[in-house]
Amino acid sequence: MTGTGPLSPSSPTSPDSARRPLVAILSGAGISTDSGIPDYRGPQGVWRQDPEAEKLVTYEYYMNDPEIRRRSWQLRRDSPALRARPNAAHEAIARLERSGTPVRVITQNVDGLHQLAGVPDRKVLELHGTGHFVVCTRCHARTPMSEAVARVDAGDPDPACLECGGILKSATVMFGERLDPEVLGTAMRVAEAADVFIAVGTSLQVQPAASLVGLAAEHGARLVIMNAEPTPYDELAAETIRTPIGTALPELLATLTP
Description:
With 258 residues, the protein is of the alpha/beta class. It has helices spanning 46-49, 59-64, 66-77, 88-98, 113-117, 145-153, 181-193, 211-218, 245-254; strands at 23-27, 103-107, 124-126, 129-136, 142-144, 168-172, 196-200, 222-226, 239-241. Helix 3 (66-77) crosses helix 6, helix 4 packs parallel to helix 9 and helix 7 packs parallel to helix 8 (211-218).
């Protein structure tokens, strides 16, 4: 850990010491590994173990190759994210929010664990969508992932939309798709307004999510980066933390709890 000491509600990063600082948390795959969900770019990440796996979440391959879709559905069917539970890091964020500290979570994850831990849905911005629903690429009908997976279990390797017969995909942002401009716009406003900005468990290599870190620093936020490996934004951080997230994040957030 490097930096200038613990954060606190009376941190000089807040322009008004009488109010509690706005804490923005950008979370990536690393925050959910303790819940049994593998990350993507870490030392044991999915992309490092099987570079071909990236095709399964690339829109062009998915839409044009039925075999890619079948493999994708098997991946979803077996995904630990559908059964995962929040871990100590998710719970620490939820505790901070319940303490009355203004908290906003901007997540690159699609597992829904922040909400399951107790952070209100309206305070969580899912930049890359959610893996708990599927959407039709033709009529845009949205249905629970569990229903589609049940059809795969019943023997349909590539279930089509029941409304129009279109191709179904998870309600996540695949490579080659644009982020929801409304969600991204709100995330940018949160980054600009944040007094404390914590990037946790993210390699900060995927844009435009990573650019939120620079935006927060540019607008005066105290930046903390918590990740197992160095990131391109470490030089902007007041503090970088390499210790395990499951213990480091609760300790850090405890210094912000009134």
